[in-house]
Design a protein that fits this description.
CATH class of the largest domain: Alpha Beta
Distance between the termini: 33 Å
Number of domains: 2
Strand order of the largest sheet: 4-10-9-8-7-5-6
Shape: globular
CATH superfamily of the largest domain: Type I PLP-dependent aspartate aminotransferase-like (Major domain)
Helix content: 25-40%
Number of helices: 13
CATH topology of the largest domain: Aspartate Aminotransferase, domain 2
Strand content: 5-15%
Order of helices and strands: HEEEHHEHEHHEHEHEEEHHHEEHEEH
Largest sheet: 7 strands, mixed
Structural class: alpha/beta
Amino acid sequence: MNKSKELYLKAKKIIPGGTQLLSKRPEMFLPDNWPAYYSKAKGCEIWDLDGNHYVDMSYMGVGACTIGYADDDIDNAVKDAIDKGNLTTLNVPEEVELAELLCEIHPWADMARFARTGGEASAVAIRIARAYTKKDIILFAGYHGWNDWYLASNIEDKSNLNKLHLAGLEPSGVPNALKGTAYPFYHNDTESFIKHMNEHKGKIGAVIIEPVRDKDPKEDFINTIRTLTKEADIPFIIDEVSAGWRLNIGGAHLNYNIEPDIAVFAKGMSNGYPMAAVIGRKKIMEAAQTTFISSTYWTDKIGPVAAIATIRKMIKYNIPSLLCENGKKVKNIWKVLAKKHNINIHIGGMDPVSHFSFEYKEPLVLKTLFTQLMLEKGFLATTAFYASFAHKNVHFEKYYIAVDESFRIITRAIQDDNASNLLKGPICHAGFSRLT
């Protein structure tokens, strides 16, 4: 038994679920055979506990490492911060610098508050909005974290979040008293938004959406949300945790000429170091002073330093444009090779956060087989790809060859109807079905 498998078996006995993040469970990729733990990483390359070397053509830290693992520029800035003391009784000046930088990039915003994860930042944004409006109900379109306010949607109807590609999330542990406080509407479905606005008129505390999903936001959809929320003085929140810093410098909403009241950032803004931000208009953000929003580790030095270094490097090298370019390369590889091998797949997602699915009766079997074949060829690969600055042409060239060979085997397996027989372990879990 290899070291990773042995350690994961131990982890499942002492850590509920085995990992801290559902998206990192080995069962989501290749049950019994996925290298669950790493010993070191650099660029887009990873070594597991047994010294096996892989190129990461999958999640890149679940989208956190936009620049790449162990980037010298970011890490040197963090090491300097550590040498000077990460957290003291006094505040770090870098949080002021970061607030100014974020507001400079987003001219509509006046103020910033910080957290360290996307889920925290989303919850902070909702708290601020509710403090401002003194209203409870939240209308949302997208994925916004694990917090009670969000999962409360499934108390009333367990299928609510399914419709947002988040099947299988139970509201267990969420107070039943929160029933009726969060309602989903759907990306580019203007009618569903208007319906909720009318049904809950006078009771809405905030509207929160992701700026982009598989498709760009329609102008009418955005204009309607902006107009109706402004008329009712309801904070309009853009959740940039997934999309931010990938399509441009800052929030994806800048590409669509959206001016929200609040925007939330995390993940890609600090290249793997915990950091999150909530920025917004002064009249709304100042409501944060009327409620209790506070955490000791939101005041550390590493987070802001890492974010500033990451954003400065993004600006210097125009990294978002390279992320989009790299994502298009992978999408094209999937498209060309699927056509070559006569495999039916559906390709979607933003260019820098793309995915494909096998359009067959048992897609999870084929997904598991693809992951297994690619792992054997030295790639951490699944049906999703997060682009990073560390991905270079040499990686794409080798990836092309590996996908070509894997698709050839999958084609034969489809023809012979024996894909499951080729698996060396169980089929991967569907679980958290949203991959972008």
